[in-house]
């Protein structure tokens, strides 16, 4: 398969068997989603063949794929929010009755309920509106739609990217049940711990080619990463130690917000990375949003560079030298319809304008400097930002804020949803910024990232700080104990 004359898949051989969960891994751009979309009839390959149950088949469209028992579950569920669950399950295939062919609503709701029940889904009703459902529930509805069509091959493209650990566990339970029923599942994920937990076989793609195939019990995370990126696991956390840590650049004292967080006190020093760990719902993001002026605080004091500041809106935070890279880069960090240089200069438009008129040549020059500095992979700076990989989109967000020349950076889940190679680049960048004297507050749900990148670690639970650790004394067990309320640790 090629796009714009560039090969994205090259001589890929791939097999899947009934009753198997087959993991498909690789960096962004390795060809995983393209392979899945070819099998699902979204793209047409320029060469090669597909065999189903031993017979060569042509799959010119998703409609034909569906008729062959092949279904694709996207990372972002493709549902109709104003319709109810049953309507989404049977969209375009509603049961009809009578000579005038009207929808048999009773039969549709009955069958929808049966499909949901077969999946063990009890908290979703057939008449519930899709708009009120979580991403996890919407994915369950998509799976119910696939099963209602008797899908025997299920392609799942990053289905866990936006799910909580509990939701991931529920999804895995259903996947295992489907495997027992003989369904073949292709599971695409960046989270290797999930791949090892649920898959029977792992295929690794790199640069559009198959690098190898392994059984989980016969390999290791380190080997899979080497196959994916061509370097070992130890290279993924290139922080670079040895630089001097200076005075506090951010001091937070007794910060509180009713029903969100209470009595949050910590500091971040120049050249230091302070990690914030905790389970989903611990209040970490709320604290970050409050510091940046997105969320109002009830009480507390914030000092930047030793000076007490009042931050009521993001503009105030920027004026005092603090930036925030949000968790959801696509909705809160970027304007996806705009190009790279337009996104990158959003926070400094006043600086690159003259008498109210933007200087496009200066915009492009500034952008090109940061593209080279952060090693952003793209065709040209006028390329729509939506076309970049997740890791490169993240670098564009970071570049946008670095142009404001900040003293303090808040990073909320900086490597969520990006591949291991891109993670290494983000970690390298964080290390360089810290070495240049920037103070970094890093929120992360990944314990290896917290342990490897942090100089100090704060643990939150239910809106409170329940643990504080120096890098030398922090362990995964201690952090989890504090996150679950089993222990209170201090420096």
What does this structure look like?
With 491 residues, this protein is α/β, with parallel strands linked by helices. It has two domains: 2-230, Rossmann fold (3-Layer(aba) Sandwich), CATH 3.40.50; 248-483, Rossmann fold, CATH 3.40.50.300. The protein is 33% helix and 22% strand. β21, α15 (420-435) and β22 form a beta-alpha-beta unit.
Task: Supply database-style keywords.
491 residues, alpha/beta, Rossmann fold, 2 domains, six-stranded mixed sheet, 33% helix
Topology (SSEs and partners):
Elements: E1 2-3, E2 6-7, E3 21-25, H1 32-39, E4 50-52, E5 55-57, H2 62-67, E6 70-73, H3 85-89, E7 96-97, E8 102-103, H4 105-118, H5 135-148, E9 153-157, H6 165-180, E10 184-188, H7 192-198, E11 201-206, E12 209-214, H8 221-229, E13 248-257, E14 261-269, E15 273-278, H9 284-291, E16 299-304, E17 307-309, H10 314-319, E18 322-325, H11 329-333, H12 340-344, E19 353-354, E20 357-358, H13 360-373, H14 390-402, E21 408-412, H15 420-435, E22 439-443, H16 447-453, E23 456-461, E24 464-470, H17 476-483
Parallel strand pairs: 3-10, 3-11, 6-9, 9-10, 15-22, 15-23, 18-21, 21-22
Antiparallel strand pairs: 1-2, 4-5, 7-8, 11-12, 13-14, 13-16, 16-17, 19-20, 23-24
Helix pairs in contact: 4-5, 14-15
């Amino acid at each position: 398969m090629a796009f714009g004359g560039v090969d994205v898949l090259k001589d890929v051989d791939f097999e899947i068997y009934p009753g198997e969960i087959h993991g498909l891994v690789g960096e962004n751009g390795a060809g995983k989603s393209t392979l899945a979309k070819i099998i699902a009839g979204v793209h047409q390959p320029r060469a090669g063949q597909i065999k189903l149950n031993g017979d060569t088949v042509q799959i010119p469209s998703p409609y034909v794929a569906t008729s062959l028992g092949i279904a694709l579950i996207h990372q972002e569920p493709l549902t109709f929010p104003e319709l109810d669950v049953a309507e989404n399950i049977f969209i375009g295939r509603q049961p009809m009755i009578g000579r005038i062919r009207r929808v048999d609503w009773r039969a549709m709701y009955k069958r929808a309920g049966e499909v949901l029940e077969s999946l063990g889904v009890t908290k979703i009703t057939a008449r519930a509106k899709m708009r009120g459902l979580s991403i996890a529930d919407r994915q369950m509805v998509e799976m119910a739609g696939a099963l209602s069509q008797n899908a025997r091959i299920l392609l799942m493209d990053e289905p866990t990217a936006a799910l909580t650990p509990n939701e991931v566990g529920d999804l895995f339970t259903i996947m295992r049940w489907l495997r027992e029923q003989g369904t073949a599942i292709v599971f695409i994920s960046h989270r290797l711990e999930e791949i090892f937990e649920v898959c029977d076989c792992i295929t690794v793609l790199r640069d559009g080619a198959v690098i190898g195939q392994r059984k989980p019990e016969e390999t290791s995370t380190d080997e899979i990463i080497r196959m994916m990126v061509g370097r070992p696991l130890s290279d993924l956390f290139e922080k670079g130690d040895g630089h001097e840590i200076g005075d506090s650049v951010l001091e937070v004292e007794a910060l509180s917000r009713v029903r969100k967080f209470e009595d949050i006190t910590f500091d971040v020093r120049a050249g230091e990375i302070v990690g914030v760990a905790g389970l989903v719902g611990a209040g970490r993001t709320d604290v970050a949003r409050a510091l940046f002026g997105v969320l109002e605080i009830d009480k507390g004091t914030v000092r930047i560079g030793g000076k007490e500041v009042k931050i009521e809106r993001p503009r105030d935070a920027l004026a005092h030298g603090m930036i925030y890279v949000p968790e959801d880069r696509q909705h809160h960090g970027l304007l996806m319809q705009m190009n790279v240089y337009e996104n990158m200069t959003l926070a400094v438009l006043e600086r690159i304008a003259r008498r109210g008129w933007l200087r496009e040549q200066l915009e492009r020059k500034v952008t090109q400097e940061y593209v080279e500095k952060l090693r952003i992979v793209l065709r040209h700076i006028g390329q729509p930002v939506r076309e970049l990989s997740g890791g490169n989109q993240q670098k564009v967000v970071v570049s946008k804020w670095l142009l404001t020349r900040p003293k303090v950076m808040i990073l909320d889940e900086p490597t969520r949803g990006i591949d291991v190679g891109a993670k290494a680049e983000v970690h390298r960048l964080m290390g360089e910024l810290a070495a240049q004297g920037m103070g970094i507050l890093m929120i992360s749900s990944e314990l290896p990232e917290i342990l490897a990148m942090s100089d100090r670690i704060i643990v939150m639970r239910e809106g409170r700080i329940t643990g504080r650790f120096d890098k030398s004394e922090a362990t995964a067990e201690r952090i989890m104990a504090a996150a679950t309320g089993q222990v209170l640790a201090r420096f």
